[in-house]
Amino acid sequence: MVQRIALLGATGSIGASALEVIARHPDRFKVAALTAHQQDERLHDLIRHYQPAYAVIGTERSGRLRAALAGQGLPTRLLEGPQALEEIVRSDDIDVVITGIVGAVGLGPTLAAVSAGKRVLIANKEPLVMLGSLLMATAQTAGATVLSIDSEHNAVFQCLPESTQQRITGAEVTDSTLAAADVMGVTLTASGGPFLHMPAEELACVTPAQAAAHPNWQMGQKISVDSASLMNKGLELIEACVLFGLPSCQVNVLIHPQSIVHSLVEFSDGSVLAQMANPDMRIPIANALAYPERIASGAPALQLQAVGALEFEEPDPVRFPCLRLAKDAARAGGTAPAILNAANEIAVAAFSARQLLFPGIAELVERVLQRLPVESVISLD
User: Fold this and answer.
1) Which pLDDT tens digit goes with each residue over 293-347?
2) In angstroms, rounded to a whole number, what is the distance separating the alpha carbons of residues 282 and 296?
3) How would you classify the pairing of strands 261-267 and 183-190?
4) Cis peptide before 359 (omega within 30 of 0)
5) 269: which of 87, 103, 117, 312 lies 20 to 30 Å off by Cα?
6) Per-residue pLDDT tens digits for 60-90
7) Residues spanned by CATH 3.40.50.720 within the chain?
8) Closest CA to 188 of 231, 110, 252, 244
9) For the chain, where are the alpha helices, taking DSSP H only?
10) Total Cβ atoms within 10 A of residue 308
């Protein structure tokens, strides 16, 4: 049976990778809905190519896109605005939802897809970071399947026993789920970003363009800045705690500049399993789309002889204070991760607009965390 896919954030880097995988398997997948916020010209091209049943664009660009599509005889129904995203993911015409929307705007559609019992592939960090236990509890109640397509979490997932994988995808995770599989802890790897070896005193002079120049991955501006500050890895640490039912003390981070080993899982007998692959998002996307099967992703196979040495080191807490802040938020729980994420979004936007120096990102986030009280998360509101 062909699975009908709604791709939220189709014009971004995750969207491009997902479409490449989907296009390789027309017998398995069909693009049923495409969404974008502002890139109406790119969305127009995708609509013409894939001819989905639905498309959603931000309200301010809807008139121009509607005019461009007029008279072309396409079967696509064009909708606009945030509410349309939630309408689409709840539709009976959709089987799988891939969430690639950056920022808190992705919370509503992701929660709606989970509430509707869909198979949800989460690429954006905000739902698991900000909603956490609420999202997982909703998934369990609604019978949704939740899979992360972050390369690190997908790597951890691949290293776990099948019975444990099934509990995770069904959101049936407790603080004893991984312990029952004899897991002692997990380690997420980070490339260290473009400033790994830059003298700390020079970080105040770096530009948004320098921060966006990731050495291994092709990503959008915001996530590239987060990778440079290691906030991205801090958010992934929080996600790992939610997805796998682990306390923050059992989730570690190692700097691994080659981005070949994506995560490691330590077991009680002293064994450590690692998932290795070239840094290519098509791999975790293909794994999650086809789970529990495997399909061709289009990514080249890893050639270790070409890579040579694999290096690992502890992250420098002075150079990367955002990682410490994320660990503190994970330990605090409740709304602390949501506060961390919201403050970071504002700080990164200010840095990208040259209104804040790079070290000021962590400074602003820490001030906000110190000032706002932590409460329980009971709803999206």
Assistant:
1) 999 999 999 999 999 999 999 999 989 999 999 999 999 999 999 999 999 999 9
2) 9
3) antiparallel
4) no
5) 312
6) 888 999 999 998 999 999 999 989 999 999 9
7) 3-148
8) 252
9) 13-23, 40-50, 59-69, 82-90, 107-115, 126, 133-142, 151-158, 162-169, 177-180, 208-211, 221-229, 231-244, 282-290, 304-307, 321-332, 336-352, 359-371
10) 8
Q: Is 223 helix (H, G, I), strand (E, B) or coil?
A: helix
Tens of pLDDT, residue by residue over 99-128, are 998 877 889 999 999 999 999 999 988 899
Cα–Cα distance measured from residue 39 to residue 45, given in angstroms and rounded to the nearest whole number: 10
- In sequence order, which residues have a C-beta less than 8 Å from that of residue 1 and are 6 or more positions away? none
CA atoms within 13 A on the CB side of 35: 29
Return the C-alpha torsion angle 166, 141, 151, 9, nearest 10. 140
Mean of the per-residue pLDDT values of the chain: 94
d(CA 78, CA 57): 8
Amino acid letter, 241 = C
What CA–CA distance (Å, rounded) separates 132 from 123? 14
* Kind of pairing between the strands at 54-57 and 29-35: parallel
Residue 217 banded pLDDT, cuts 50, 70, 90: low
- The fold adopted by the segment(s) 3-148 is Rossmann fold (3.40.50)
Task: Give the single-character DSSP code of 277.
Answer: -
Q: Closest Cα to residue 219, out of 17, 4, 6, 48?
A: 17
| pLDDT of the residue at 250 | 97
- Report how far residue 298's alpha carbon sits from residue 278's, in angstroms, rounded to the nearest whole number: 12
Instruction: Give the pTM.
Output: 0.93
With vertex at residue 97, the alpha carbon angle to CA 92 and CA 98, rounded to the nearest 5 degrees, is 165
Q: Which two tokens stand for residue 173?
A: 């995770």
Amino acid present at 79: L
Tell me the C-alpha distance between 194 and 213, whole Å. 6
Inter-residue contact 250 to 327 (CB < 8 Å): no
Radius of gyration of the chain (CA): 20
Single-letter amino acid, residue 160: L
C-alpha pair distances (Å), 353 with each of 3, 209, 222, 231: 41, 11, 12, 18
Q: Write the CB contacts of 113 (distance below 8 Å, at least 6 apart in sequence).
A: 6, 89, 90, 97, 99, 120, 144
Distance in angstroms between the alpha carbons of the first and the last residue of the chain: 37
